[in-house]
Amino acid sequence: MKKLITIAAAGAALALALSGCSAHAAPASGGDGGGKAIDELVVGFAQVGAESGWRTANSKDIQASFEEAGIELKFSDAQQKQENQIKAIRSYIQQRVDYIAFSPVVETGWDAVLNEAKAAGIPVILTDRAVDSKDESLYVTFLGSDFVEEGRKAGQWAVTEFADADSVKIVQLEGTTGSAPAIDRAEGFAEVIGEDDKFEVVASQTGDFTRAGGRQVMEALLKSQPEIDLVYAHNDDMGLGAIEAIEAAGKVPGKDIKIVTVDAVKDGMQALADGKINFIVECSPLLGAQLVDIVKTLNDGGEVEKRIVTEETTFTQEQAIEALPDRKY
Ligand code: AHR
Q1: Cβ 54 vs Cβ 236: under 8 Å
Q2: Which of 13, 35, 281, 314 makes a 20 to 30 Å CA pair with 263?
Q3: Would you say 232 and 248 are in contact if contact means Cβ atoms under 8 Å apart?
Q4: Ligand 1 center to residue 152 CA distance, Å?
Q5: Ligand 1 near 261 CB (within 6 A)
């Protein structure tokens, strides 16, 4: 994926990206949808599903942002199935919406439907997750997190946390197989911990980004892996499921087995504040306002950067306690 997208520096580039004054030599065109009155615009959004607290927050934020902007949003939930997302996109093409936005459930297999959107002259905006395609002309821009960097941040925390340990046995709870966040978070984490032989990933299995999946995988692994020092869960929900399994096995999450997760949704932050999770790498689901800005910019005939990276932070227990009262999701 890294090869296929241009990573823009978040701050200045984001401001530029949304101002309509792109710094790109090759501009990303908004197609022929420009110049409509805001209340005449129609955007189709094909969501992944409702698999996690993050996803629920993301859907709510997108729907609220379009409502506030007065732009009609057609919204579909693919229940984590690529075929459902493809059907939704085809239906948006048939309905002749002005823009299509979607968060691809997996990275590959999109070229055919995206070519159909292109042939119909409907610009496509990727949000949250990337597609793995050689043809960058199939989408206008990709707005979302740098998942590889998120994995690196989790790995860097593990290196510091286990600085005095001689060996660290790790269980990795992977996100949806084939999805950008599962692939990239594994890559970033492996890159960092791979520098020291004492780190060993003893098991790595998918929990499909769900709490039930995280619990089931962890229940089984607690039986087959007698020694686990660290759980690296690709999202909070799987980490929360792992906590349930660890407690059911009579162990203390956060102490007997340390846990690092990605997202920082309220339930995850509460578990961090309670000492059951040890560290969280933030992945912001609040993409709605930026998505609206992109649509408006393109509609005005402006240009946007090919890659817009979301700004994010990390949380320790103390920081979670401080942030929780104001946490929006
Ligand atoms: O693509 C973003 C990821 O998808 C979030 O980390 C996870 O919670 C969600 O299901």
Answers
A1: yes
A2: 13
A3: no
A4: 16
A5: no
Question: Residue with structure tokens 């995206």?
Answer: 114
pLDDT, tens digit, 9 for 90 and up, residues 161-190: 999 999 999 999 999 999 999 999 999 999
CB-based contact 207:177 (threshold 8 Å): no
Residue 262 CB less than 6 A away from ligand 1: yes
Q: What CATH code is carried by the domain that includes residue 74?
A: 3.40.50.2300
CA separation for the pair 62, 143 (Å, rounded)? 13
Both 60 and 157 in one domain: the answer is: no
Taking the C-alpha atoms of residue 173 and residue 242, their distance in angstroms, rounded to an integer, is: 9
Q: Locate the DSSP E strands across the chain.
A: 42-47, 72-77, 99-102, 124-127, 141-144, 168-174, 199-206, 230-233, 258-263, 279-282, 307-309, 314-315
Are 58 and 99 in a shared domain?
A: yes
pLDDT band at 226; cut points 50, 70, 90 = confident
pTM of the model: 0.90
